[in-house]
């Protein structure tokens, strides 16, 4: 099943190159999380946070996430990276990456809003509050992830200073709806399972915080790696090995 191959290839991309993954993302991610914790964003009382502090947290998270994503794409696809704990910052590429991501985000938000109004009430009605919410989330995440993944295929090209349009990525994956359904399902289940251990801890406890930070890093790196794998396979015609 190609969806499983893409998913496992992406996971191996991170954990098979764990030293490089930590070198490229570790320091940036730790600093980002230190700022998040210092501002109290993980305390659960987000509404009480000063808007200026929240804006700072969002700005830092955005810049650092773009920095990591661009550096990881370039490392995997072009072998760039060096030995520094702070990867090179490719400003123009990161800015274009941001612009394209915002456009994708608008499309995804619209799709999620329309589907959410229909799916979530249905899930709650059929299966009750807890199970219904989980089923509803899964039913919502799969189609949203399918659209997101296909639209996001050009992002690794942008990270490398190249340019392909949404239509090129869409055409390259024509006829692969089943693959993207399977991949979206795997990614949705993966995301839900990563969140389960956190519910076992008291929300304001150290174990809960540590799991949130660890699972956040894993989800970020696997997500970026899936886009890298999709671009490498469908655009550069690399085999899934």
UniProtKB/TrEMBL annotation:
UniProtKB keywords: Membrane, Transmembrane, Transmembrane helix
Transmembrane regions listed in the UniProt entry: 21-42, 54-76, 97-124, 130-153, 174-196, 208-231
Name this protein carries in UniProt: Uncharacterized protein
